Amino acid sequence: MIRRATIEDLPAIMALERASFPADAWSETMMREELSSPHSAYFVDEQARRLIGYAGLRAPAGARDADVQTIAVAAAARGTGRGRALLEALLREASTRAVREIFLDVRADNPVAQRLYESEGFTEIGRRPRYYQPDDVDAVVMRLDVAAWADARMEDAG
Questions:
Q1: 2-157: which CATH number, 3.30.2270.10, 3.90.1150.10, 3.30.70.260, 3.40.630.30?
Q2: Reported confidence tier of residue 153, pLDDT bands at 50, 70, 90
Q3: pLDDT at residue 155, as a whole number
């Protein structure tokens, strides 16, 4: 079940953050600020009262663009559609906030995530060399036209 994250989810989010991103996990202070910010929207995915994923969007009020901040899914739940469900929650939120474009960075060595984003309509617009440290991994910068995404969803439903 996907729902809005609350500050009470912070311990479970941080446990998954550290497990998912051991080399470059966000600090608890950073994540607390994200969860509390009016400019962010975070969602969690729960199964059997256990957090199996979370995702965040940074979309200040009135902004025409937004950023996917993070998406993480527990290793045991990967490949089951939970990452897509979280991404779709972020995209619906962006559409609700009248965002026109969403941007994200994804590790160049993560083709599974890149394919997920491409399947939802994201396109590569650039690269940031050696962005992810300490691993020296490039970031693939991607962009999504939110209106085109929403239109495609309506066509699929109709």
A1: 3.40.630.30
A2: confident
A3: 74
Helix/strand/coil (H, E, C) string of the chain?
CEEECCHHHHHHHHHHHHHHCCCCCCCHHHHHHHHHCCCEEEEEEEECCEEEEEEEEECCCCCCEEEEEEEEECHHHCCCCHHHHHHHHHHHHHHHCCCCEEEEEEECCCHHHHHHHHHCCCEEEEEEEEEECCCCEEEEEEEEEHHHHHHHHHHHHC
Domain residue limits, the chain = 2-157
Q: What is d(CA 83, CA 40) in angstroms, rounded to the nearest whole number?
A: 18
The predicted model scores a pTM of 0.94
Q: Are strands 137-145 and 50-58 parallel, antiparallel or unpaired?
A: unpaired
Residue 158 has pLDDT above 80, yes or no: no
Asked if pLDDT for residue 156 goes beyond 80, the answer is no
pLDDT at 99 > cutoff 90:
yes
Averaged confidence pLDDT in the chain: 95
